[in-house]
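not sure who needs this but someone in the group chat was asking about Ribosomal protein L5 domain protein from Bacillus thuringiensis subsp. medellin so here u go. i didnt clean anything up, its just raw.
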Amino acid sequence: MKGKYVLVLLFVMLLAACGQVEPKKETKKVEETVNEVKETIGVTVIQKKHKEKKLQESEAKLVIDILNKAEKQEITGSFGEPEYEIQISRDGKKETYYAWLRGEDRRGWVQYKKAMYMLNEKDTEKLLDIFPNVSEQKEDEMQVSPLTEVTKKDLQITAFHIKTGDQNVNYTVRYTISQSLYNKLVKEQEYYLQLNFPEKVQKLIGAKESEMILGEKVKEGYKQYELHATVPIKSASESQLKSLETYYESYDLKILNSKKEKIGVFQNIIQIVKDYGEKMNFQR
């Protein structure tokens, strides 16, 4: 009887040992399968049918994550010819996406089959950093003259906003530039913007003008840019801050080159914005 008990105990121990070994084999099999899946995913990006780039594993993963986050949108009309074709290969199957990444609002669009998806600004910028970029400058744009003057022919102020905070004033100026000015700013690399304050505001702020602020770098063919200026106020009551938010008259915008030399002044910018708005309404 005692011998039978020992045999049963040994049998139970063997079963337990087998149970411990078996999951390890399962885990290894799963890991191998995952590795196989990773190896079969490839992403190739083609820019307008003439430049092709096969992405590295880290780049491919980032692109797939971004595409998965894109928000589906119902739109009418067409964006025209896509800038990029994105080919994703998974286990021998190929998915094709089309992308438009250089809209003026900085948000890209992706088409998969017949559905359209919108990307946020940060994800659009990440894709532009990864994707190939072939310059398509025309011959007449290759010869760029020096940046000596900026006039209303080359720069249009489209919006002007004033918002006060805790003992400071926040200014936002939106502007659109011409192709000619774009080409010059690409060559110039740096330019500066400066707000001149009206007399009424100078008394509260204690300064005649803002600091010279480095202009937003022109890139990707974009024509619309913004100036953000924060100006501190030493001491102002709540009513004084409120009055600053509602007073828009007689602000001027100064443009300076990379040497901080003045190359243009736009006077009473709120009137320029109003004229622009009236022109847009008339065209509509």
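also Residues 21-34 have pLDDT under 50 and may be disordered. if thats useful
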